Amino acid sequence: MLRQVSGADMDFVARYDPMHDVDGTRSGTLPYAAAFETDRFHRQVGAWSASDRAAVLGHQAPIAASDDVSLSRTALGWHDVGHRFRRRRVLDAVTLDVRSGELLCLLGPSGCGKTTLLRLAAGLEPVQVGSIVVAGRVVAGPRYGLAPERRGVGLVFQDYALFPHLSVFDNVAFGLSGLPQRERRHRTEAALERVGMATYTEAYPHMLSGGQQQRVALARALAPRPRVLLLDEPFSGLDAGLRQQVRDDTLDILRSDGITTVMVTHDAEEAMLVSDRIALMNAGQIVQVGTPQALYHTPQSAFAAGFIGEINRLTGHLRGCGVDTVLGHLRLAATPCGCCHTDGAAVDVMVRPERLRLSVAGGADKGPLEPPLARVESVRSVGSCTLVRLAVLHPAGDPVTLTARVPICPVPAGKLASVTIEPGCTHVFAGVDRQ
Under a CB-based contact definition with an 8 Å cutoff, are residues 169 and 186 in contact? Predict the structure, then answer.
């Protein structure tokens, strides 16, 4: 039997849902929340609107056949979206489309606007500027906002937001209260089976591990069969070993079901591991969008180069068809991003650690010119490769510190090594591009 809402539940509603609706209506829905006991939640829940509660519950109503659109269209889009919290601008003319069936990561530093984009798409924030599109249909704009439960968008919060007083089954079933009892039970059982939690139906959240709670939160979001699933740093609260396993299991489910997914993360390595495409954000703007390989190998700004993976930073000056650096004169295949090709112009030169080549100083393969020399400061094995810390000798100033990632270091610590860069593997940007 499905658990019925009791008088005790209504007391719980009265305590945690003060019905503070910005649109003047009253809602009897319960918000899912991870930590009802915390003072932070007590303060926040009192300010939630009806839209907040509806989206938190995950009441995604089935989409009528007349509302169907071609799957070839954009599944989710933010078009020229701007947003402010009081005087602080958090989003600035953001335009981004998510393709049907893909997993896109919103990546960037804390406070860059990633979670705000999710909240706008889910209906937790009103759109101030621009529009939100789901499956080719405008669902929100400055003067219009489709109710969250009618958007076909699911949301998994960073802290999972499970009801502490409801069982696993009832947590998942609660968001399906608009369905007939038999269909509600079928969807709940199917969702729990899908995430491997079918044997935990009678357990309560406090009896589960962090990974199990995450699976229940995922089941709750999948049960209403949303068109788009939004994940707000869903694995950040798990330890490293568990994070990888839960992440892999979750992504297997999403990919096998073909669910369009947008995941927020500030971890560049995680974004590269899981996503089809990455939208890199900084200061409320989209900096670059592309595949993980494109962002890593062909960054369009110094910020992108530095945020996606480890990087060595050098300064240099343009001369002829190249740039002068402490590692010698490096030939360029194209004009540096953001600057005119003028001799003497200052530029930033960035090199990935794996693109540095080391050899014994004065070796037989040195060629007609001796490559720049560096003192090997430290050599550390990290399993599949070796990290080498170098101090490049620079007659015009202090040594420049670099990191090389090589299979085996041919030079012991304390000795001199010749340093070269793999041809065509430098990223050069205008000297002012230091975001």
Answer: no
